[in-house]
Amino acid sequence: MQIQDLPYPDPGVPDARSGPRFLWWLGRGQLGGQLRSLAWGLLHFLSVCGLPFCVGLAVQAVVDRSGARLVQTGGLLLLCGAGIALGDTMLHRAAVTNWITAAARVQQLLARRTALLGSALTRRVAAGEVVAVSTGDVEKIGWFVEAVSRFTAAALTIVAVCVGLVVYQPALGIIVAVGVPVLALAVLPLLPRATRRADTQREKAGRATELASDTVAGLRVLRGIGGEELFLDRYRRASQEVRTAAVRSARMWSIISAIQVLLPGLLMIAVVWRGVQLAHEGRIAVGELVTVYSAVMLLTYPLRHFEEIAMAYSFSRPSARRAARVLSLDRATDSEGSREACAPAGDLYDPRTGLLVPAGQLTAVVCGDPDAAGVLAERLGGHPAEKSTSVLLGGVPLDELPLDSARTAVLVQDKDPVLLSGSLRELLDVPASGAVSVEEALTAAQCGDVLDALAQASLDAQDPMDARITERGRSLSGGQRQRLALARSLITDPEVLVLDEPTSAVDSHTEARIAEGVRHLRAGRTTVVFTSSPLLLDLADRVVLLHEGEVAAVGLHRELVHSEPRYRAVVTRETDEEATARSDTPVEEAPTETVLAEDVLAEDVLAELEEIEESA
Question: Which of 52, 129, 225, 310 lies most in the core, judged by the most C-beta atoms within 10 Å?
Fold first, then answer.
C-alpha cells in the first residue's frame, strides 16, 4: 500500500482484544512495507558501519605505503557513501509510508466504528477520548508501527558488526561483543517506571482533552449561566496536572538518554585503553586499532534506535489500548443477518413497549421522561444502547437487516442534531429518494428566515445555499439549527422518519406552520414524532401515551386531553396538587361553578388551538 492509494478499500477486521494485539495486527497488515523498510535500513546501517573498516584499511595502506590498497579503499569508501545516501533516502520514504498508512488504517477503522455505533458511542466512551484516539493516539500508533522495522535493521546491523569485529580482531572484538548487549539492556530496569509515567501523562492528557471538548460543546450554555470561569479553573488545574506528569515522564526519559550516552563512552574508553596496550605490545596494527575504535564510535548510531523503540512502545501502548477499546465496541444487536438487503415496508412495532406505528400515518408519542423517549427513538431506528427485543418493521426485525438497509428504512433525528461545517448546499446534499426537493423541505421546515440570516452573514455568497455554516452550527440559534436539521431529514424521505422533539426550540407560531408542513410533505409516509406540544399532537393521526415504559393510552389528542389524566398532566403541565384535587372531588358532588370552569377552560384551549391554526 502506497500513500497515493489511500484510503484502504477495506481496512480489515482488527484484533481489538488488547493494545499489543492490535499493534501486532497492524504490523502484520503491512508486512510488505515493513520488509522494504527493513531492507533499506540494513543497506543504510551496514554502509554507515562499513566506514570504520574502510578507514582502518586506508590508514594501514598509508602505513604500509601501498598505493594500490589505498585506491581500493577509496573505491570502497565511495561505495559506502552511495549506500548511505541511497539507503537513508529510501528508508525515510518507506518509514513515512508505513507511518502514514498505519495511521490512515486506524482512522478508517475508527470512522467506520463511529458510523456503526452512531449516537451510542458517546454514551459508552467519552467524547474527549474519541477525539484523543482519532488525533494524537493515531500518530503514536503509526510511529511505533513504522519504528519496528528500523529497530530490527539496527539490531541486525549491531549483531553483524560485533561478529565482524570478533573475526577481524578477536582481542578487541570480544570486548565489544560483550559490552554492546550490556549497553542495549542497561535501560531495561528503568523502562517499567518510564512506561508508567508515560501512561499517567497520557491519561491526564486524555482527561484534559475530554474536559476541553465538553466545555467547548457547552460554551453557549456556560456563557448563559456565567460558568466560564468555573470551567476555566477546572481546565487550568487539569492542564497543570498534565504539565507535571509530562515533566516527570521527561525526567525519566532524560535519565535513559544519559545512560545511552554514558555507557557507550565507557565502552569506547575501555576499547581504546586495551587497544593502545595491544598496539604497544605489537599484537595489533595501527589500522586495526583505528578500525575498532571507529566501529565502536559509529555503533552509537544504531544503538539509539533501542531507546526510540522503547519510547515508541511506551507511548503507543496506552494509545493502542484506547483505540482497541473503541474498536471493540459493537452494536447491542447483530446487524449481520441473513435477510436480503431490500428494506421492508409496513407497520413499525416495538415489542418492548407495545408501541405500534401504522404505516403511512403521522403518529405522535408522548412520554413524560425525555431520556426514555430518546432511548425509544434510538431503538426504533435500530441503534439500541443496550440489548433488547428487536423492533419490527413490516414484521421483519430490524436487527436481522444489514445495517445499511436498516438505516435506509428508518431515519432517526435526535433532539440535539449535529450540523457539520461547510456550505448549506453541502449540508443538504444527503442520500435521498429524490421525491422531496430541497426547496420543499426548506419550506416545510420554515427555513425562510434562516436563509435570509445566512445570506446577510455571508457577504461573499450570492446564493444562500452557498453560505457557510460553522462547526456544529454554532453561529446559528437553537431554533435555526433545529429547522435546518429537520429539512435535512425531510430531504432523505425515508420509509419511516422518527423525530425526537423537532420543534422544542422554536416559537408557537413557527411550530404550528412546521407541523402543517411536515404533515403535508410526509403524507402517505410513516412518521413518528416524540413531543408534548399540543400543536403537533393535534395534527397527528394517532397519539400514543407511554407511561413507565409501556403504552398506557392510544387515541386522538382532543380525546386524550379529556379522558386520560396522565396524558393531560404531561401535555398541559398539570401539577400533582391539581391532579389530586381533581381525582378527590366526586363528579356528582362537585360545585356547578367548578364543572363550568373546567368546560370553559377546555373550550378556551380548543379555541386557542383553532386560532393558532387559522393564523398559521
Answer: 52
